[in-house]
Q: What sequence folds into this?
């Protein structure tokens, strides 16, 4: 079992672990959450990702408590843009400068920190006031409240606009053996501009980690089952993502000690060319159809 290696996050210069802890999966047991994040850190995972949307802010609060003893030694990311309604019935999209400058203060308080390493827009559309959003992020960088910013999006048209208009350091997008849409254009484009790629959904809702197969992004259930039969759970999926040098980190949702143990025990996920060749015939050549 090796310690998790690091990669540089795009143009930011910051070194982050190539496996990052997706905190959305955490439950309500603070003692367990604290133990999970501490154990992950002990194994070399220094990158923790949350969002103000998750569990109406309680996720950020839990992560803040867990990371407080070693806050300066980790890279902490959160997201903004989805505003919970007063009655709690849902949320509305709000990428305005005014809202972002208000929301960051609440995130800082919940996370028990005076700076956020990576502040990400949690979505985005081509109709957003993009320049205004960028102004907010740049101001927060000047103020020292954030160290870098990025977006979480799978929309090629939005990502292209952000590349042209901003100094973003990262894009979080969905990428896995069963979702190869970024290979058409986005991976090469982001690599060209030295923008870090954070790959979420790497285990395809757990199906690449052994969960029961179901229809997924154009794959039928039997087709997913064929892929499952050809791979090692978790290891093959993460090996596929990380063999691409343009990917900075695979963001993996972790909820239990056994999930974390499987993640670190099998690292660095060796994968033979023979296995890749066996999997390839069962994988689809996918494209984004919307927001091109």
A:
């Amino acid at each position: 079992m090796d310690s998790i290696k690091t990669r540089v996050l795009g143009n930011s210069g910051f070194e982050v672990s190539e496996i990052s802890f997706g905190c959305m999966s955490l439950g309500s047991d603070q003692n367990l959450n604290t133990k999970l994040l501490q154990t992950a850190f002990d194994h070399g995972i220094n990158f923790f990702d949350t969002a103000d949307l998750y569990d109406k802010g309680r996720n950020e609060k839990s992560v803040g408590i867990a990371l407080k003893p070693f806050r300066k030694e980790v890279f902490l990311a959160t997201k903004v843009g989805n505003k919970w309604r007063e009655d709690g019935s849902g949320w509305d999209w709000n990428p305005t400068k005014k809202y972002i400058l208000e929301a960051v203060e609440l995130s800082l308080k919940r996370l028990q920190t005076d700076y956020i390493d990576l502040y990400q827009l949690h979505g985005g559309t081509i109709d957003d006031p993009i320049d205004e959003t960028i102004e907010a992020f740049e101001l927060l960088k000047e103020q020292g409240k954030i160290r870098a910013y990025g977006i979480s999006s799978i929309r090629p048209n939005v990502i292209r606009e952000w590349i042209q208009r901003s100094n973003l350091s990262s894009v979080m997008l969905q990428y896995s053996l069963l979702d190869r849409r970024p290979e058409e254009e986005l991976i090469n484009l982001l690599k060209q501009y030295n923008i870090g790629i954070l790959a979420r959904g790497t285990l395809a809702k757990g199906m690449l980690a052994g969960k029961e197969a179901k229809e997924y992004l154009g794959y039928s259930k039997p087709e997913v089952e064929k892929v499952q039969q050809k791979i090692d759970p978790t290891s093959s999926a993460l090996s596929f993502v990380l063999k691409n040098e343009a990917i900075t980190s695979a963001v993996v949702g972790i909820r239990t000690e056994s999930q974390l143990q499987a993640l670190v025990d099998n690292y660095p996920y060796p994968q033979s060319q023979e296995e890749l060749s066996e999997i390839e015939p069962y994988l689809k050549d996918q494209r984004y159809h919307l927001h091109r």
Notes: The longest strand covers residues 146-152.
